[in-house]
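re: ur question from earlier - yeah i can do the single chain one, its not a big deal. heres the input i used so u can compare w yours
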Amino acid sequence: MDRATFACSTAFFRDFGNSSPGPLPGGHVDFIDKADSFTYSDFFRDYLIPNHPCIFSAKFTEDWSSRKNWVTWDGKPNFEHLLQEFGEAVVPVANCDVKEYNSNPKEQLPFKEFVEYWREYIRNGYRSSRGCLYLKDWHLSRAFPEQDVYTTPVYFSSDWLNEYWDAVAVDDFRFVYMGPKGSWTPFHADVFRSYSWSANVCGRKKWLLYPAGQEEFLKDCHGNLPFDVTAPDLRDKRIYPRYSQSQPPLEIIQEAGEIVFVPSGWHHQVYNLEDTISINHNWVNGCNVAVMWCFLQDELAAVQREISQWKDPMDDWHLQCQLIMKSCTGIDYKEFYNFLKVIAENRISILEKGLDEESSSQNNSKAAISTLGMLHAVFDLKRTVKVLSSLSANEDFRKLDLNSLSPSPEALLQHLESAIDTALL
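and the output i got, formated as tokens:
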């Protein structure tokens, strides 16, 4: 991060607090063509801060081994190579033809069985008695860490979600999707209202994107979001009374090799127009961590409303609310504190000690932080202070047993503020 971008971002978040969806004149989505003339600061200033989508050309992925080895000469999935590498893996597969709780039901299948199904589906003219199956949310990088199938573009390297979950060695938010022509993902926003990036290894996708806040006009009379945003029912004012107030979605056709950047909190629906393989990350950083915190507060409030009748007779009602929220979202307030702590401590370590040679030679979070520069580390700490201050003052957080947190929130805040002051001397 250069000084001009640091000054711009600091001023923006001082004045506005969170990244803003902002208007997109004419529904235009920028296409970034040349990798050698587009810098991280360009992306940070023009897309992360204003929370705008963009498309990166296939030039940004042309060196990936997956684009060379997973794809045949005519741009189709290379089933033979994929079976050779991953045939014995067990993968999550959704049925796109079945609706279950506003999503598609999933099952675990051997990868070789899914590929056998896919080949037969193609031979039968994209029809099967089993329905349209879609391999989704496969943690391939975690299952096969030795496979060097892609490199995360530098623009997406400030990735707090995967930095934290790698540190605790529990989960990650790096996924592979593989599906036949006609497979699709219903209307949704990404986990924690995070950013996402999605790269087509092969195939084509159609995206329908709605800026953050537009989803409020798409809710039915009971407050539920639609399963399929293109369904005719949405035009029925008795069911969807505010649909007429919504803006038309931004439509993107994503070609092979291209990367789509999906802004924080944007709801979307995605179709595979051809047999398609994609690599996807969900990620949070200093620009949208406050959005994540707002989302968690909204989720807890929803849980509290659902079980409000048990508040008086239940001694540990507040703890139970946290447990339910974690089962639904994957995180509770105490883990969110630990998330902020890990992010902060990594940056304090870089600012106070620099980057040792061993870390700089590895593809890890500290190397990524150092690559982005010391000013980026300071920006991250300033954003962490903002959200941590709000968390520490939160009534529901203060009702929890915080004695297990080390250091205490107050001590961590003091350390962060001291590190920022020292770095800016």
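The longest strand covers residues 195-202. not sure if urs matches, ping me
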